[in-house]
Backbone:
């Protein structure tokens, strides 16, 4: 049996970040991983999908390159090479995590970890043979999550796809039905539509990107429809059937009937990886879709902690995001080491969707702010009025800022358009500092930049905008 100061179960953004921070603080650390280092995010999630989306962006740019005075003829793409490039990017990311483990002298144990009743962890190989046993003073569970299944429908990853299958298809489908219009569904819709696949999106709620501000969702919906994507909102998924090599997706609601396509992608959320790892045997209390933890990430068992997608501070949930897991990892380790008692403010977590146009937001939507009783000052500035946007030919979208009218504090920030996911961090920082519109207006922004749209949006809210 090996003994460690801290053991982490799972090596995704939460797990490997926790391992590194613990090692930096002088602990003897082990990390147990059943698959590839880096977890879903680096291998079959955040990173490889951004490779796919970049290639889709390039294809789209080439379609409209004539407006820049450039002539491009007989442009083609190789779908297999696009998929391969994303896998190469994932492999390099995994290699990077391996290097970080070695650099920080972290012991990596490959295998499936399961808790024993004495809180030790047995590690099993693919043949279910015990290959190692680990004892630890502190253990952090960071097992992440997997794509959520609907009923008894099984992902065969050929016709019925999860996000994993959608990023590794061997052949470009002529048509695809996507159930769910959150970030995953929207990103794959953009990717495959750019390559010529006929896309139909099914969303049970009244708008796509349900967690985003309505005006932002409307901009994306308009752009998607213009690009040829069919969107059915207020439409419920009822089932799926494969007949004659085609997939028939049954739906009801505003649109009822069957949607025929080559493949269907079910992108309706995730399920936490909390079962079959011995948690029930040692008395860890579970919610329906996560491990119950307190604000210090402690489970109901002493010495055991949980972070990331598998952990819930309350049963209502939290954002399922890699950067949340990384932030919780550092916070958890530092609390274990009694470095501070700082709690993460989950209202200040940015959300990003990397379709085109991009979407990024932090804080309250206009709808939620009004529902909470705030009197608001709202500033909206379109990218069509921004010089850098016009020069780049990227005029779709806007910046929308929501302020508390009484104190001027930023309550919510919403961006749709080019580089939205890069622009949002300025506003996340401002909101974290409880900043106001004046903080933005009195800060000189470089010219010409897309970020001037943030300055102008704040100005609009208070009647001080210059360029609109």
Residues:
């Amino acid at each position: 049996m090996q003994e460690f100061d801290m053991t982490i179960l799972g090596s995704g953004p939460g797990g490997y970040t926790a391992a590194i921070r613990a090692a930096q603080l002088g602990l003897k650390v082990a990390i147990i991983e059943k698959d590839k280092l880096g977890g879903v995010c680096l291998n079959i999630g955040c990173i490889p999908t951004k490779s796919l989306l970049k290639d889709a962006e390039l294809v789209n740019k080439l379609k409209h390159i004539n407006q820049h005075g450039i002539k491009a003829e007989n442009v083609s793409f190789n779908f297999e090479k696009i998929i391969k490039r994303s896998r190469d990017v994932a492999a390099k990311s995994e290699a990077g995590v391996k290097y970080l483990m070695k650099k920080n002298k972290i012991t990596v144990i490959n295998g499936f970890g399961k808790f024993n009743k004495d809180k030790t962890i047995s590690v099993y190989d693919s043949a279910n043979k015990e290959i190692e046993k680990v004892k630890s003073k502190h253990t952090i569970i960071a097992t992440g999550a997997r794509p959520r299944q609907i009923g008894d429908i099984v992902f065969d990853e050929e016709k019925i796809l999860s996000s994993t299958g959608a990023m590794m298809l061997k052949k470009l489908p002529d048509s695809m039905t996507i159930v769910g219009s959150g970030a995953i569904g929207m990103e794959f819709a953009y990717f495959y539509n750019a390559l010529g696949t006929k896309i139909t999106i099914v969303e049970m709620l009244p708008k796509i990107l349900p967690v985003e501000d309505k005006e932002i969702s409307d901009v994306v919906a308009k752009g998607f429809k213009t690009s040829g994507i069919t969107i059915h909102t207020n439409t419920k998924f009822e089932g799926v059937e494969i007949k004659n090599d085609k997939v028939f997706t049954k739906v009801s609601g505003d649109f009822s009937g069957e949607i025929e396509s080559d493949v269907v992608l079910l992108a309706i959320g995730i399920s936490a990886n909390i079962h079959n790892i011995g948690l029930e045997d040692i008395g860890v209390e579970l919610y329906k879709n996560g491990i119950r933890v307190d604000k210090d990430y402690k489970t109901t068992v002493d010495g055991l902690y949980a972070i990331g997608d598998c952990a819930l501070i309350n049963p209502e949930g939290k954002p399922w995001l890699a950067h949340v897991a990384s932030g919780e990892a550092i916070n958890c380790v530092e609390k274990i080491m009694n470095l501070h008692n700082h709690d993460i403010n989950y209202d200040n977590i940015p959300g990003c969707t990397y379709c085109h146009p991009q979407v990024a937001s932090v804080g309250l939507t206009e709808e939620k702010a009004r529902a909470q009783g705030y009197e608001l000052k709202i500033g909206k500035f379109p990218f069509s009025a921004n010089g850098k946007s016009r020069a780049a030919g990227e005029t779709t979208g806007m910046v929308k800022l929501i302020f508390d009218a009484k104190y001027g504090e930023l309550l919510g920030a919403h961006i749709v358009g080019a580089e939205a996911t890069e622009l949002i961090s300025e506003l996340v920082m401002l909101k974290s500092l409880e900043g106001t519109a004046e903080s933005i207006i009195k800060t000189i922004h470089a010219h010409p930049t897309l970020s001037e749209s943030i300055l102008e949006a704040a100005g609009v809210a208070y009647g001080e905008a210059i360029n609109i």
